[in-house]
Design goal:
heterodimer; A: mainly beta; four-stranded antiparallel β-sheet; B: 116 residues; mainly beta; six-stranded mixed β-sheet; 52% strand
Chain lengths: 116, 116
């Protein structure tokens, strides 16, 4: 079946540094990918829609300059958390629609970011 | 506005008992999708089921069954003869308008613990 791979699975960084998270569709092309954020014991909140070849669409309240999204190819989207702060510590998870028309979303394994 | 309510924050049952996870949703759309995802401790989201708003037939898949009732805006999930491997957080989700089944609004999740 369709697989979405996310890397890294865990990352610890210092305040002020930037962290890049990759999301790949392994055996299918994804012109659109979605980035979600999950705080501990809370629900998943959609952050942005990543569009191949064009700018990402951000949800209300999500800082574009803080969370940079680049959809460089049909199989890769990246989320860069810039100038990270402890409050950015969270679980970030990406998803992509499967290769078959109207197939449900497939999610990556997520990235747990800890900013110290 | 869309909303998904999972009133049960945490549930614990003894192995082999049946358990039902509740999901109530709100939407103004006449066409929508409902989903259940499982999130084991490892973090990834595992797709369980998708239901179209026009299809109110209940569904059974092994030990899992789902009861969709538009009259009460509910999409409940039952696990029969629960097993320890069923321990996870379960999310109910609703598709957002005009995005097919790609952009989702998630409930807050129900943490299910199966006691051996």
């Amino acid at each position: 079946g369709a697989v979405v791979s996310q890397h890294p699975s865990r990352v610890i960084c210092k305040s002020g540094t930037s962290v890049k998270i990759e999301c790949r569709s392994l055996d299918f092309q994804a012109t659109t990918m979605f980035w979600y954020r999950q705080f501990p014991k809370q629900s998943l909140m959609l952050m942005a829609t990543s569009n191949e070849g064009s700018k990402a669409t951000y949800e209300q309240g999500v800082e574009k300059d803080k969370f940079l999204i680049n959809h460089a190819s049909l199989t890769l989207s990246t989320l860069t958390v810039t100038s990270a702060h402890p409050e950015d510590s969270s679980f970030y998870i990406c998803s992509a629609p499967g290769p078959v028309y109207n197939s449900p979303l497939h999610f990556g394994n997520g990235t747990r970011l800890t900013v110290t | 506005a869309q909303k998904v309510t999972q009133a049960q924050t945490e549930i614990s049952v003894v192995e082999k008992e049946d358990v039902t996870l509740d999901c109530v949703y709100e939407t103004r759309d006449t066409t929508y999708y409902l989903f259940w995802y499982k999130q084991p401790p490892s973090g990834e989201l595992v797709f369980l089921i998708r239901r179209n708003s026009f299809d109110e037939q209940n569904e059974i898949s092994g030990r899992y069954s789902w009861n969709f009732q538009k009259s009460t805006s509910s999409f409940n999930f039952t696990i029969t003869a629960s097993q320890v491997v069923d321990s996870a957080v379960y999310f109910c989700a609703l598709s957002q308008p005009n995005f097919g089944n790609e952009k989702l609004t998630f409930g807050t999740g129900t943490r299910l613990t199966i006691i051996p």
